[in-house]
């Protein structure tokens, strides 16, 4: 009798579990594996290590993307100009990508980077450091505010045109699964560059000896083949949303690093030797030469502070690459534009995204209109005092921040 009751309970539990699984599956509707015939550029591209639309490798441009994260300030601005002061083989100035967060950002300097042709992308308002309690399991509303409010502030205080802000990098590379991509898509973001990969690099050797090679940027129309190393993998379909995978570098110990800052060496050579920095970058760049898959150098300015050899090493590497006629240092936005309309190297000069921008366009943020707005506690940040420099207008009454981009609402202790 007792066994009978137990069996019945077990049956009911199993039934309940089945119903739950069926319901969840139905609600989530996982994206199917990619079907190349149903996924063609400009708006769809399967996650793959093959070069786009079958252009032979020898005819491909080899793209290098240089990106910097966090606040743009008077402390890092000149460094950026120094790194970016070089030209691509077509004679145009190189373009870099800046993933900008709000706190301490000088919006007049962001405007100047944009005026010089660099890409301004989004890296959240708050950049809160509590990954576990803040970013992980964040609601769609939470993601939306972090994305949209930062777009609004870059537009209001830095006069960056909305249509130029297309990219997103999530703080700490904590990819937020379906919820994050849902919010990005609704916010008008065109690509995400937050998702590191180790297995799809030009250097990682699988246990059976195969090397997959690097993934090219792809869209989330179909299920991604990319493994998730940080955060949560999206499973649903987000048509037309591009992912620019962050291909891990291999550091001087042979260990992966998603951002250059995280690369280590056994000795302190990355602090004392410019050549060690150059060699690290060269080795990783050369690993991708045979397929000309895009090479990303993702780093923070803070890595270069206190160690001048790092700047020297980086510049040596950029000089070294300039000997390759197929190498173009481009913004992530340019790379995505090329993915949508891939052309061989010899046709790059006719591609809309690769025209030389006006060398010295007039500024829409003249210095006589700049305002440096001071704010003191109570503030929504840990600093007791902060300045926000902006292009024009009267200083907002309170410090502009998440859910308060116009600074109309006071803060309480
Ligand atoms: Zn950051």
UniProtKB/TrEMBL annotation:
GO terms of biological process kind: carbohydrate metabolic process
SUPFAM superfamilies tied to this protein: Glycoside hydrolase/deacetylase
Molecular functions (GO terms): hydrolase activity, acting on carbon-nitrogen (but not peptide) bonds
InterPro entries: CE4, Glyco_hydro/deAcase_b/a-brl, NODB_dom
Keyword GTP-binding: no
NodB homology domain sequence ranges: 93-190
Highest taxon above the source species: Eukaryota
Alphabetical keyword list: Signal
Coiled coil segments of this chain: none
Pfam families in the cross-refs: Polysacc_deac_1
Stretch forming the signal peptide: 1-24
Protein name: Chitin deacetylase 9-like protein
Organism expressing this protein natively: Hirondellea gigas
């Amino acid at each position: 009798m007792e066994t009978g009751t137990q069996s019945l309970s077990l049956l009911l539990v199993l039934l309940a579990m089945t119903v739950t699984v069926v319901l969840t599956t139905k609600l989530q509707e996982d994206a199917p594996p990619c079907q190349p015939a149903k996924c063609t550029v400009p708006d769809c591209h399967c996650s793959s290590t093959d070069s786009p639309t079958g252009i032979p490798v020898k005819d491909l441009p080899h793209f290098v993307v240089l990106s910097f994260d966090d606040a743009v300030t008077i402390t890092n601005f000149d460094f950026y100009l120094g790194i970016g002061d070089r030209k691509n083989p077509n004679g145009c100035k190189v373009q870099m990508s800046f993933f900008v967060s709000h706190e301490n950002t000088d919006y007049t300097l962001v405007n100047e980077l944009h005026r010089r042709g660099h890409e301004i992308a989004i890296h959240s308002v708050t950049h809160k450091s509590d990954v576990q309690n803040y970013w992980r399991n964040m609601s769609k509303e939470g993601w939306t505010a972090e994305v949209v409010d930062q777009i609004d502030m870059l537009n209001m205080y830095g006069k960056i045109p909305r249509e130029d802000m297309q990219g997103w990098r999530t703080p700490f590379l904590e990819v937020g699964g379906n919820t994050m991509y849902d919010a990005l898509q609704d916010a008008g973001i065109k690509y995400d560059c937050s998702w590191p990969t180790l297995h799809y690099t030009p250097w990682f050797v699988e246990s059976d000896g195969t090397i997959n090679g690097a993934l090219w940027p792809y869209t989330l129309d179909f299920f991604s083949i990319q493994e998730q190393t940080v955060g949560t993998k999206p499973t649903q379909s987000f048509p037309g949303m591009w992912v620019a995978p962050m291909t891990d570098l291999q550091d001087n110990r042979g260990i992966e690093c998603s951002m250059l800052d995280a690369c280590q060496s056994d000795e302190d050579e990355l602090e004392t030797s410019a050549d060690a920095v150059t060699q690290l970058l060269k080795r990783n760049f050369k690993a991708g030469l045979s397929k000309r898959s895009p090479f990303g150098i993702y780093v923070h300015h803070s890595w270069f502070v206190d160690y001048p050899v790092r700047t020297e090493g980086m510049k040596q590497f950029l000089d070294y690459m300039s000997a390759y006629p197929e190498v173009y240092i481009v913004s992530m936005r340019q790379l995505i534009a090329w993915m949508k309309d891939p052309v061989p190297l010899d046709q790059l000069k006719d591609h809309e995204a690769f025209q030389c921008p006006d060398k010295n366009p007039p500024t829409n943020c003249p210095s006589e209109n700049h305002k440096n707005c001071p704010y003191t506690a109570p503030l929504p940040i840990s600093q007791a005092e902060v300045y926000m420099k902006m292009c024009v207008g009267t200083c907002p009454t309170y410090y502009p921040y998440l859910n308060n981009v116009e600074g109309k609402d006071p803060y309480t202790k």
